Amino acid sequence: MNNNVLLYIGRFMILILVQVFILNNINFLGYLNPYIYIIFILLAPININKSLFLFLSFILGLTVDMFGDSGGVHATACIVITYLRPVVLRSVFGLSYEFQTVKLSKVGFGERLAYVTLIVFIHHIILFSLERFNFSHTLLIAKKTLFSSLFSIIVIMLVLVLFRRKDS
Amino acid sequence: MQQIINFLIRNKNFLLFLLLLFISLLLTIQSHSYHKSKFISSTNFLTGGVYGWRYSINNYFGLKKENERLLKENEQLRNQISRFTVDTSAAYIDTTSFQKPFTFIKTNVFKNDYSKMDNYILLNKGEKDGIEPDMGVITDKGIVGIVENTSKGYSRVISILNSNSRINAGLKKSNQYGSLVWNGKDPNIVQLETVPRQAILKKGDTIITNGRSTIFPRGIGIGTILNYKLDENQSYFLIDVLLFNDMTNIGFTYAIKSNDATEIKSLENLKTDE
Questions:
Q1: Most buried among A118, B51, B109, B154, by the most CB within 10 A?
Q2: Do B40 and A65 touch (CB under 8 A)?
Q3: So where are chain A's domains?
C-alpha cells in the first residue's frame, strides 16, 4: 500500500516535469503537442476514493496550467475526464469492470486502445475549445483536436507498453 | 434536514465535481480577459524557479547565436554614436530616434510559447529590478509584448501573439496608424487593423511603433508588410505584417521604462475628469 502511494506521487511529478519541459516544447508542425500527463488519470486504480481522485486530478491540471500560463484549461479537462472515467470504463470493459477485476496491464490491446482513445479525445476536445474560447474557430479546434489526439494516443500507448510493470 | 444531509452525502462526488468545475472555468474565463489572469500564472516562485533552473541549462546551447546578435547590435549602436559625436553643435531633434527619455532594462526569457491562442513570456527580472506592469518589451530586432504581471523576481509578458494584445503601430513613411492584433494562425505574421484607406501602402513597407502611448517609444521596428486588403466596409486596410523578430526564438530582451509615464498619465486623467 505504502509502496503504491509512493509510486503514484512519483508518477505525478515525473509526468508533470516531462510534460512541461519536453512535450510542451515539441510543437510538431508548428502547433502539435502530445499531452501525456493524463496517464496519471488513466492508470489510477479502479477502486480509488472518488473525491480524492477528483481533487488530485484538479491539482494535476492546475499545475500544468500554472507552468503553461493557460488559466484553468487543463484543470477543467482533467476533472471532466476524471468524472466521466467510470462511464468510459463501464462501456469499454463491461462486466469485468462491474466486478472490479480490470487491470489495465492485463487487458487486450483493442480494449486498452479504445479506453485510451475515448479518454484522450474527451480531454482534448475540452482542452482546445476552452483554450480558443471562440466559436468562430470551430474548424481550427476540430483540426487541432484530431491531430493532437492522434499524436497523444500514439505517445501514450508507447509509454504504456514501454513502462509496463512486469511483476503484476 | 436529515434528508438534505443524506442527499449531500450521496451526491458528494457530483457536488465536488461541480465545485471544481466552477473554479477551473472561472480561472479559464479570467485568463481570457486582459489584466485579470493573476492567480494562476508562472510568475510564482515555484514555477519561476523551475523555469530558471531549466534556463540555466538551456542557455549554453544558444550562446554562439546570441553573441553574434549582440555583436551586430553593438556595431549598430557604435554607428549611431559616431553619428552623434560628429555634429554635436547642431541642436536638432532627430525624429527617427527616441524623443523621450526612456530607460532600458536587460532581461532574459525563461519561458516563451507561441502555439496557443494566448501566449505569454516569462522574464527573469521582476519588481526588485524595477520592472512594472505596462512596460514595453523589445529585442534588438523589434517588439515582443507588454509586461502584464510582476512578482518579486519574475515578470510575465503578454506576447504580441496573444488575442488580448493590442498595440499601436503605424507606417514608417507616413503618420497613419492602426492597432496590431494576432489572429492565432502563424507565429511569424501579425495583423495591423484600422489603418485608414487613404494610406499609401506597398508590399515590403516597414511598420514601426508610433509612440502614441507611453509604453513604446516611437521608431521601434515591428515588421514589413506582407499583404494587404480592404475590409468589408472598404474603409480600412487589413495588413498582414511579417515580424522582424523570430517569435519562436527570442533569447534576450529589453524592458522599456518610460520616465515620463506618470506625468503623462496624470495629465490625461486630468482631462477626462473635467
A1: B154
A2: yes
A3: 2-162
